[in-house]
Amino acid sequence: MSVTTLATAERLLFVDGGAASPLDLSGHIATHGAVAIPTRGDHSWKAGMFRAVAESGLLGRGGAGFAAAAKWDAVYRDPRRPMVVVNAMEGEPASDKDRVLLTYSPHLILDGAEVAAAVIGASEIVICIADHNGSAASSIEAAIGERRQAGMTARRMSVERPPGRYVTGEESALVSWLNHRPALPILRIDKSVPLNVARRSVLVHNAETLCQIALIARHGPEWFRQAGTLEAPGSTLVTVTGAVRSPGVLEVELGTPVAEILGRAGADVDLSAVLVGGYGGAWLDASRLATPYAPGPLADAGATHGVGVVIALPATSCGIAETAQLVRYMAGESAGQCGPCVFGLPAIADDLEQLAIGRADVEALDRIQRRSAVIVGRGGCRHPDGVVRVVRSALEVFVADAMAHAEGRPCPGYDHPTVLTFPESPATGRRSP
Amino acid sequence: MSAQPRIAVRFRVDPVACDAYGYCAELLPERVTLDEWGYPVVDGTPVDGDLVAFATRAAAECPRRAVLLEAVPVRRQGQPGSAPDGDGPGGRNVPSVGGFRRHP
């Protein structure tokens, strides 16, 4: 996938006319300007920066959309010296934005991490990049080296390489890994209580969230809110793939109609639906592509914002067959800890696969619905809930297909190549379906 | 703080720890049923009165120590709904008595 050059709202993927190129430290400062970060506790600066991020209304860009300032607040209240963790795991197979940021704008991520660290009083920053993403890791390591050489950082910075699986990007799994335990999610009863590494509370931010913080630190909250919607201000990165001419990462204003995002990626064939929000997201019917790309409107349309992924499904493909493959993959990516996920997801995948080829028994559709209802909310993390959301949206958006398949009539397109991306999982030795 | 407050208990299962032994569904069928794979499906409505003892026993008997009991104060009539733990949102002071009480 390539980095597409942009026409509007270029903030993160700032390109000067031509194609984006990786920014080294001098290029970064020439493009974005420097941001002054006090090395020792400057309380008025801290308070000002906290207020700026709070007033910006920045929502986390990792999928859950949690307010960034609320995370700071929770960690700041903790008397122990906290730690900043940069989540650049990109567990979402179709997403490419973390890699793009790590490769093209590593210093913007590090600026954001340093701003956050300075505000909450952290002395250490850990950047987590999946073990298979080697080039991105060397890019950020080079950037750290540049900053050290320029005497720009007073904080310890290190790169960690957890196994690249779907669930290892979940923040509690990441923190488990940093605590020298397996990179698996833990049950969190109260998510407002910060996670801990070696008994220090941890602030985990997605790489893009930190880039946005780095820009807010430079230009202020009013500037930030000039783009986007009232509820979801700013710009955001979206990876657009599937039936589009130029798949890749786009920067769009939140609230941009989904159809416009697809248009910019060159969607010129008939689409039956788009998968929004990644593999734990939801299908959005082609008739609703005018929906603004922002959490509220997408939720109203039965979809979800989730991670920044939009996948275009051509009218020639079978949405049920695609969903079956997705569920099979996600079942394999389960952490394997909770029964409803371990047994429920493969059971749903079985029925969807039979349904897609027109060989399901008469009760398959009911079974899928019933199991979806039973599974949801019963995992330690939200992995099964996301899969169920995709399944339920598929049975709604592709309802006519599902009924026809249940009567033994599969789509002509059921064996077309998938528009979804299924990486191999070297960490587990598991293969994609 | 004169009268002993009545306590209700919310029954929860840690799905990561749970290995589908199913004892909880036998001891507290009022709140726990099993799914087709034998894992508990829990009704989160707090139990009070006689059922508290059964909830406590289910926690104690769980071989995986997967049951989490959360004490939920019962509001008496006429009393305004004040925060039970005096610790603001999040309620971090709510005592969790997960599985360490032995049933007599």
Summarize the structure.
Helices cover 41% and strands 14% of the residues of chain A. Chain A has 433 residues and is an alpha/beta fold.
List the helices and strands and how they pair.
The complex is a heterodimer of chains A (433) and B (104).
Chain A: E1 2-3, H1 25-32, H2 43-56, H3 68-76, E2 83-88, H4 97-104, H5 106-120, E3 124-129, H6 134-149, E4 156-160, H7 171-178, E5 195-197, E6 200-206, H8 207-225, E7 235-242, E8 248-253, H9 258-264, E9 271-276, E10 282-285, H10 295-300, E11 309-314, H11 319-332, H12 339-356, H13 364-375, H14 383-397, H15 399-406
Parallel strand pairs in A: 1-8, 2-3, 2-6, 3-4, 7-11
Antiparallel strand pairs in A: 5-6, 7-8, 9-10, 9-11
Helix pairs in contact in A: 2-3, 2-5, 2-8, 4-5, 4-6, 5-8, 11-12, 11-14, 12-13, 12-14, 13-14
Chain B: E1 7-13, H1 23-27, E2 32-34, E3 40-42, H2 51-61, E4 67-73
Antiparallel strand pairs in B: 1-4, 2-3
Weakly predicted, low-confidence segments of chain A: 1-8, 426-433
Put simply, the count of helices of chain B is 2
Number of strands of chain B: 4
**Gyration radius over CA of chain A:** 21 Å
* Main pleated sheet of chain B: 2 strands, antiparallel
Q: Share of helix among residues of chain B?
A: 10-25%
Query: Percent of residues of chain A in helical segments?
Result: 40-55%
Quaternary organization? heterodimer
Structural description of this entry:
The complex is a heterodimer of chains A (433) and B (104). Chain A is of the alpha/beta class and 433 residues long. Chain A has helices at 25-32, 43-56, 68-76, 97-104, 106-120, 134-149, 171-178, 207-225, 258-264, 295-300, 319-332, 339-356, 364-375, 383-397, 399-406, and strands at residues 2-3, 83-88, 124-129, 156-160, 195-197, 200-206, 235-242, 248-253, 271-276, 282-285, 309-314. Chain A starts with a strand and ends in a 27-residue tail after the last helix. Chain B has 104 residues and is α+β, with helices and mostly antiparallel strands. Chain B has 2 helices and 4 strands. A two-stranded antiparallel ribbon of chain B has the order 1-4. A two-stranded antiparallel sheet of chain B has the order 2-3. In chain B, strand 2 and strand 3 (40-42) form a beta hairpin. Residues 78-104 of chain B have low confidence and may be disordered. Chains A and B meet through helix 12 of A and loops of B.
